[in-house]
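Reminder to self: tokens first, then the designed residues, so the page reads top to bottom the way the pipeline ran.
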């Protein structure tokens, strides 16, 4: 059953779908009145809906049944990725969304080869958000992860004040076989808390960046004894969170 994120609560047990989702329902899926879809409202509630009416500009659905339960991780995990080359960030956003990430923040790191072009910013952000939306629908999420505009180190440190726990995935810790910080952090956390994890670009984070983050309450951790690629490390961390909170219960 196709899933769509809607930007309104159900008025009189009805949702109105327009824009790209309207096009997908009518032109791509070629759905007809009477067929069913799942609508997810801004309160992260899902409902099985029947298509009641299709006009030239909108699809009107009626709620058949609200769906209980949630597929979301018990904690909110924000992924901070040093801007990588090529389409690696798109991969991180897509797969990270499938694995349950709450939010993505691109980070303009000292070793980021890619330079952020403000002239192309809006178009780039729209594409990243679309990738997150499609991945959230495919993986049956009820929360649509937000992709923030890239930030520098100063802004990242300021953002960190809003999180319960803050970690830095640092390859030097992995080389020294550090293996306790991530597991201890997850063991301390409780449902509903927030976790921010910072990952470097291809060249990794600089010692100065790590030092500055540590001074502001971030803790560096290893992700096993192997050195992971910039697009692999966030997926490892999200998998560890899922294993700890969802599979060990």
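Designed residues (249 positions):
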């Amino acid at each position: 059953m196709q899933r769509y994120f809607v930007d309104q609560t159900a008025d009189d047990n009805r949702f109105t779908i327009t824009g790209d989702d309207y096009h997908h329902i009518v032109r791509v899926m070629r759905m007809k009145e009477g067929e069913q879809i799942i609508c997810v409202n801004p309160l992260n509630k899902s409902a099985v809906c029947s298509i009641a009416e299709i006009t030239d500009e909108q699809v009107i659905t009626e709620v058949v049944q609200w769906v209980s339960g949630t597929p979301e991780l018990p904690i909110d995990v924000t992924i901070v990725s040093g801007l990588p080359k090529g389409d690696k960030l798109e991969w991180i956003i897509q797969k990270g969304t499938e694995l349950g990430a709450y939010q993505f923040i691109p980070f303009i790191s000292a070793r980021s080869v890619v330079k952020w072009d403000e002239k192309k910013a809006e178009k780039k952000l729209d594409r990243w958000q679309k990738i997150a939306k499609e991945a959230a629908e495919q993986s049956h999420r009820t929360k649509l992860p937000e992709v923030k505009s890239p930030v520098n180190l100063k802004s990242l440190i300021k953002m960190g004040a809003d999180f319960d726990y803050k970690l830095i995935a640092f390859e030097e810790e992995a080389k020294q076989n550090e293996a306790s910080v991530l597991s201890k952090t997850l063991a301390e956390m409780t449902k509903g808390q927030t976790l921010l994890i910072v990952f470097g670009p291809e060249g990794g984070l600089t010692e100065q960046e790590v030092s500055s983050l540590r001074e502001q309450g971030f803790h560096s951790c290893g992700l096993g004894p192997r050195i992971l690629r910039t697009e692999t490390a966030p997926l490892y961390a999200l998998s560890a969170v899922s294993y700890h909170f969802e599979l060990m219960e």
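The chain is about 35% helix and 25% strand.
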